[in-house]
Structures are given as C-alpha cells and as structure tokens.
Amino acid sequence: MAGSSSHSVLADLPQPAPLLAGRARMAWLAALVFLCAVVPVLNLATPAGSVFHISDFMVALVGKIMCYAICALAMDLIWGYTGILSLGHGLFFALGGYAMGMYLMREIGLDGNYKSALPDFMVFLDWKTLPWHWALSHSLLATLLLIVLVPGVVALVFGYFAFRSRIKGVYFSIITQALTFAAMLLFFRNETGFGGNNGFTDFKRIAGLPIATPQMRMFLFVLTALFLLGFYLLARYLVASKFGRVLQAVRDAESRLMFSGYSPLGYKLTIWVISAVMCGVAGALYVPQVGIINPSEMSPANSIEIAVWAAVGGRATLIGPIVGAFLVNGAKSWLTVAYPEFWLYFLGALFIVVTLFLPQGVIGLVRRLRGQQP
Fold this sequence. Notes:
- By secondary structure, this protein is an all-alpha fold.
- The protein is 69% helix and 2% strand.
- It has a domain at 54-298.
- The chain contains 14 helices and 4 strands.
- The strands form 2 sheets. A two-stranded antiparallel ribbon has the order 1-4. It has a two-stranded antiparallel sheet with strand order 2-3.
C-alpha cells in the first residue's frame, strides 16, 4: 500500500515542459533542414543559371546576418529578460573576432606580401618579434578557447564591479558604451599590435585549408546556422528554468526579489557573461566569412544597432530579435546600395516608430493580429 501511494504521488507531479513543442519544434527542424541541407545543395550543386540556385553573394549575406542574429539573441537575454540595456556588446563581438583574426593572420605564413612569418603590418612597422599576446595565436585549439575566455573574462570583471556597485539603468548603458569606445581607441593604436585602423585582412587559410573556396564558405555558413539554432535552444532552456524566472524578477521587481532572500548579483553576472560569450562566438564566425576585422566593429553605433535589432523584432521573445536582425540588415543591404544617403535616417525613424507604436516589436504585432497574448 505504501509503495502504491508513493507511486501515485509521483505520478501526480507535473512533468517538465518540453524545450520545443508543437509548431515551435517543427519550425526549428525546418530551419535546421533548410539552412544545413537545402541551402548547401542549392548553392553548390545547382547550376548558376537555374532559378533555384542560391548565389554566393546571398550565402555570404545570410551568413553575416546569422552572426548578427546571435548578437541580437544575446541582447534579448540581458535586456529583454533581465532589464539591463547594454550599449557595449559590440566590444564582445569584436574581441571574439580579433581572437579569430589573429589566428587567421598567423595561418597566412610566408604567403604575405613581405614573405615573412610575421603579419604584414608588423613587418611594415619594423617589428622584429611577435608581441606577448600573440603567443597562442598559432594554435586553433587555443584560439577556440580564447574566443570564449577573452569576452567572458572581460565581461566577468566589468560586470562584477558594475553589478556589485548596483549601477543600473541609463548609467549602466552609458558606462558600457564608454568601455566600448575606450577599447576602440586602444585598438586603433599601432603599438598595441592589433593592426591599427586597418585591422586584419587578406586571410588565406583556416586549419590549413583554403578559406576562399565555395566548400569552406558553405562549411562556415552551416557552422554559423548550427550555432544560431543551438544558442536559441540554450536561450529557451535558460528562460524557462528557475534561473530564467529569477532573471525576469530582476527585470520587473529587483527590490522585491532581494526582500524575498535572493541575491541578484550572481544571476545578473551569469547571464551577462553568457551573453558576452555568445557575442564573442558570433564575432569569431563573422570574421572568416566577411574577410576583415578592424576597430570599427567596436564603434558605439554598432552596439546601438544590436539593441535596435532586439527592439524591432520584439524583446523577451527570443525569436523576435532574430527576426529583427534579418529585417533590419536585409533592409540595410538594399538601402545602402539603392539609397545610401538615407540609410541612417531610416534606421533612426524605424527605432522611433517601434518605440512609440510597437513596444513589443514585430513579433508582438503579429501576435496581436492573430489574437494571441503579446
């Protein structure tokens, strides 16, 4: 009887909700199949004259936007679900990009313009040896670790002091923007060993394989898609857990949360570091696909754009910032060619319209039109 009673009690306990259910699972699987199977076939195996062919330009564009979408997703975790607006996430994106760029520069080897083991810009500046911070740049494994560790450690140190001092709201946003701007000025200096205003470019190989081949380009595209879809699953897991509910309590009523016995510091610091690492990975995937990394990636405008993507798509929705990144950057790709002088005006007007009339973004508008709770 006792065993039967115990079994009955256990049977009545609520079962954990699946990570993806119903249409969400089908949409995720459809995106996985399309990005990782259909696109490679339509690009590599379909003749260029076919109506079904996906051009190399489109592959490169979508690959770049997927890197941006990872940053927008990271912004949603820290801003949409935790209520902390960062205007410095471009720094973490650039740090991951520079870590990858240093490795790619070492991979050039003796194929540079000066036929030297040193990167061309160092030979031009009459450097004789590599700086100390380039010591591990020859190793792909070390580079992969640095892509995670460098943005993570910078975010950990900055976040610890900022959150411990209870800096919030606009003050936190301004400090993150100042941090990014200071880093940009530092990387612009030639003596820091990061290529100055030109940065890194003219990459030849990755892991010993030519980087400019269609096969390598498609490999990087698929890898970016897998990271984007994987980070989306991670984000859904985090926000659906107890950890995620505490983050939303930090956003909505931090003082009441502290009164309930929770210390927000650990929760805010954890999600801040996770968000920074996601941006670092996005930057590392971005560099070999675009072919360049320079200090302009740390400009305050780039970090503001990440916030715009999240706002346009819809904060605290996860899928919204991804949609926002594709919408805004798709429009940017077209407008900067057709009407380059109007692009910044369009971006500013878009942000104002979304803030005033679409506080839940595009996803919130779609949900209202379908009669769902925004």
